[in-house]
Amino acid sequence: QDWSSFQNKHIDYPETSASNPNAYCDLMMQRRNLNPTKCKTRNTFVHASPSEIQQVCGSGGTHYEDNLYDSNESFDLTDCKNVGGTAPSSCKYNGTPGTKRIRIACENNQPVHFELVLS
Prior knowledge:
The structure is a single chain. This protein is an alpha+beta fold. The chain has a single domain, classed as CATH 3.10.130.10. The protein is 20% helix and 45% strand. It contains three helices and six strands, in the order ααβαβββββ. The chain has helices at 3-10, 21-31, 50-54; strands at 42-46, 61-65, 68-71, 75-86, 90-107, 110-118. Strands 1, 2, 3, 4, 5 and 6 form a six-stranded antiparallel β-sheet that branches. The model has no long low-confidence stretch (mean pLDDT 97). GO terms for molecular function: lyase activity; nucleic acid binding; ribonuclease A activity. Its main location: secreted. Substrate binds at residues 40-44. Its EC number is 4.6.1.18. Belongs to the pancreatic ribonuclease family.
């Protein structure tokens, strides 16, 4: 995965409006074409600018191990978990909004993989 696909999968800024977090996840997973053949089990959208998230790979993050970095700051995000449906267009998600720190993988100072939401 590269920086542009990371942005498509994980960055939504400013946050797309939806009637509720579940509807938000259903909409975004479809709009970003993240379920081409099967419903993705889980996906997190971060509501911060690409430059803010990119900083986690540098001064805005703390090295964890290998190429993984933990953000120093918390980000507004929506965590989407699959609860059924069928790909590509009717996957159903349970969305949970929150403000949390994140762990990402970096290559050449750019985020390339979303590892997890830190509790």
